[in-house]
Amino acid sequence: MLILFDVDGTLIRTHGRAGRALAGAIQDVFGVDVPLDGYRLSGKTDPQIVVELMATCGWGREQVAPRLRELLDRYLVRLERELPPELVSVLPGVPEVLSHLGGRKDVRLGLLTGNVEKGASLKLERAGLAHHFGIGAYGSDEEDRNLLVPVARARAAARWGDRFEGHRTIVVGDAEADVRCARAGGARAVAVATGGTSIEALADLGPDALLASLADPATLPALLEGQPGGSEHRQRAAEPDRER
Ligand SMILES: [Mg+2]
Asked: What kind and span of H or E run contains 236?
């Protein structure tokens, strides 16, 4: 199976530094001071965050889009400088879970994140986790997170010769948007309440599994449930329309 992890709030925390680097890049390129207070970054792609923040200051997409690439390059320069490794915290249970899954022949690990690819790499390198992931789908591929499961599957097919159709793909994330993008791609959704979204709000979306953190003893059973011969097939037989 293909297990795709979100980055921020799921694997690591950057204590507001990445958001500030993005706001700083907006200031550098557009000279606009965007308000981060009260704005939720959770589950959104980097390009989406820029477009939404600029909209709060009265700038339309057509004004922002032509300089988006330049802005995201500027963000990466700032992130490199403004995110020291000691401010990248690895969330509980993450190293153990990734090491275990990485040792299994029946599991492939990837990323599904709103971060632009180089931003995700930089954060995960600083966290010492980058080596675990063979492929990724990123905010630099699509502004709409709901389009990222097919991107990840295409990369998995190119790398490992398998698209991991249906519930053989699992999306693990901390935000409502992670659950929704799993659904949009016909993948299983495993929600983990270590980000900015409460466990109750995640439960309301009815993810296939819900964990307090990746240190929860239920983590590996929740992730590995969809294996051939596992209970997934019984669930799917009982609830045939659950994938959509
Ligand atoms: Mg997240």
From this structure: helix 232-238
